[in-house]
Every structure is written in C-alpha cells, then in structure tokens.
Amino acid sequence: MVQTLQNFINGEFVPVTGTESLDVVNPSTGEIVAQAPISSQADVDAAMAAAATAFKSWKHATPGQRQSVLLKMADAIEARSDDLVEAQHRNTGQVKAMIAAEEVAAGADQLRFFAGAARLLEGRSAGEYMENFTSYVRREPVGVIAQVTPWNYPFLMLIWKIGPALAAGNTVVLKPSDTTPESTLVFADIVKDIVPAGVLNFVLGNGATGAAMVEHKTPAMVSITGSVRAGIAVATGAAKGLKRAHLELGGKAPAIVFADAHLGKTAQEIAEYSFFNAGQDCTAITRVLVEESAHAEFVQALAVAAQGLETGNPDESKNYFGPLNNVNHFNAVVKVVENIPDYATIVTGGQRVGDKGFFFAPTVVDGVKQSDDIVQQETFGPVITVQTFKTEEEAVELANDVEYALASSVWTANHGVAMRVSRDLDFGAVWINTHIMLTAEMPHGGFKQSGYGKDLSMYGVEDYTRIKHVMSNLDA
C-alpha cells in the first residue's frame, strides 16, 4: 500500500497546502512505497512560525531540562528501533542490521552525548579586565535553525543535526531528503510527546522547498549535509540574509598504503571501508595510493576482498551493502565506470548486479591518472581507484591534489611515517591503520570543497551557539 506522507509542525502531523508530490521508491525493487508532498511557501512559513514561537521558551529551558528531553528521546528511539529500521529500509534498501546498529543504536548513543553536552557549555570566567568593570561571556543559542539532511544516512544525519542544536537551546525546521523521508517521520511520531511543540518541525519537499527554508527571514542559521553543489546553493542563499551556515559536503578520501603495511589485512579492511553502504559515504575510501613496490600484491588482495563483499542477494541479510539510492544516482555511477579511460583497468566489478533494483558490484579500477575525472570527482558509489607512489612526499602530494578535504587514512607499520603523513594530509580527519571510525566525542568535518563547521563533539555543539560579552560597572 502506497501511503501519503505529511509534515510534522508544532507537535502534530499536518497535510501540506501544496498539490504536488514526489514518488518515494524502494531502491531494492524499484517499487513506489509512498507519496511525499512538496511543501509550499505557506507550509514553510507555518513551520518557521512554530519554531520561532517555541524558541521563546525553549531557549530559557535549563541545561538539565534540555538534557532530560534528549535522554528520553534516546530511550524512545531504542524502544522503537524496529519501526525506524523498517521505514528506512523501504527508502534506502540498506541492510537492516546495519541500520539498526550504525544508525539507530549509534544515534541513541550520540543523543546521550549531546544530552551531557547540554550541561557543559561555558564561557570564560568573569574578571575585571578594566578597573571597576566586571566582564563575563554568555554562550547562547543562535535561534531557529533550518536544516537539510541527505539520503545516504537519513536517520543518523537527523541526529547529527538536531542533537547539538537542541542541546544548545535552539529550535529546528528540518527537511529530509525527498527520496528518504520515512524514518524522519517515524522519529517525529516517537518523540512527539517528549519534545515541546514547535521545538522540532519537519517539512517534506524538494530542492525548492529547501531553498525556501534557507532564504526564509526566520532562521538565524542553516545547516546541510549534502553535495558541493547543494552546499554552494545553501551558502549563497544564507549569505543573502547574512545567516550563519554549517556545511558538511562531499569527499574523495585517499588511503595511503606503504609497503611495510600488512598488505592482506589492509586490503580486506580498505575494501570494507570503501564499499560500506555501497560507497555512499562522504568519508568512504575512494582512492588507494599504494607504494610502487607493493602494488601488484596489494591490487590482487584488494580484488579478492572486493569479490567477497556481496550485494544484490534476494536474502538481504547476506548482503554486505545494499543498492544505490535512486535511479538517477545509479545511472550516474554507471556512467562514471563506462567513461573510465582506455589505459585504466577494471580489476573486478564494473557492472550491475541482478535485474531489479539499483545494485552495483564492488568495483576496483587500476592504472588511473591523477587528472582523471574518476580520481578528481566524487562518484559516491562502490568504486575505488588505485594509483602508485614512490616516495612519502609524492604520496602526500597526490592525496592532497583534489578539491575535497574531508577524510583520509595512512597505513604503515612505521610510527614516524604515520605521524608525518597525518600531519601533512590536508583533510579534516586522518585515520592511522583504520578508517571511517567515528565517536561522538570527536569532531567530524572537512576543509576546502568539503565545507566548514563540525558535527559531533563539543565543537559541533558550539557551532550552534553565539557568544555575548556582558560588562557591569562596579560603581553604579
């Protein structure tokens, strides 16, 4: 049965005023599972008004009160994990066990971190920096936040957005991706009796809806996780109103493999980190730079590892990763592989898996050049390239020679090499002999075309605050 979805505004599910809608498709089957309406300007106005009204009281909630709400939310989503998993699986085709562990359970844990962070915000201590005048710093919420989440991790990115915003005392209007809205709405149903009305609002729609949110006069800040193109559009729209922007955008993560690494183990782990979630992860390894003397052995091991990661099996529990998210993205990944230069070699993969849905085989491409599009541009699929280097300096130069700067890793048994390379890699995250691991206590965010601002950690919470200097005359 195809259901019609609704917005969640001021604590209630409400129909949109617009008449247009979008098909929500299960990418494992190609079947339509829901109709998502496109919110009108009036719908956006209603959500912003609700958030603005709620902010008047929510900003005065004590840190302990905000913490209590976030902790109750975490408990509630764990209790209804199955509902969240089923809703998201319909929209993404992701392996259910992965959704349960890596999004729902991880999201609950991260909410608990943000709950604790709500009680740790502080400014500099008060002092008399001028004679007879006492100064102190207040750290305050920014206001109403407009947020947009992506389709690759719909639920987890929802938590990354709302967790720090609410912990800091802000209210939110959030638009989920038009292809993956259902887990967000199930979350709304789960927390509707926990969060005060208007503090959280969810509007459905397309790019035009997102633009209306960004350019609306109410939000003081906009936050998006998405493509560079979308990030530029959001930053441009925010600039028109001098709004703060928080952008977590694309990636083209390198893994530098030195000959002294344990090549078989490294190849297996790199394959797993590359093809996790079908490579639809902006931190996923997309480029391997391997020391020339180890190239042949490593590529053979990487191909074997890739071939052992299954996708497209009708018994989805046997799959390591699911389908690409939608037909347009599937076609884009196919085109990238079809346009590989003649001098490059597809070592394994390179083709569709099955005759329905948008499954694509784990693909390893060897012999590419630094200037190739497949090296420079984000593919966002289960495709990894291999290049060689001779020296440590060349490895770092090749790794840094892209417009993205979100994530990277170095694989070596040499501590000095690991420390020098991690210092010189121009990326927001560097892993040593591992990759993609995240913890709530550590910041996540990139440089260059990968955007600015941090998710997770106290740095992420501080991004959703403003600071105010207050000075008092002691002689008054």
UniProtKB/TrEMBL annotation:
It comes from the Bacteria. Keywords: Oxidoreductase. SUPFAM superfamilies: ALDH-like. The active site is at E248. Residues 18-470 form the Aldehyde dehydrogenase domain. GO terms for molecular function: oxidoreductase activity, acting on the aldehyde or oxo group of donors, NAD or NADP as acceptor. Belongs to the aldehyde dehydrogenase family. This is Gamma-aminobutyraldehyde dehydrogenase.
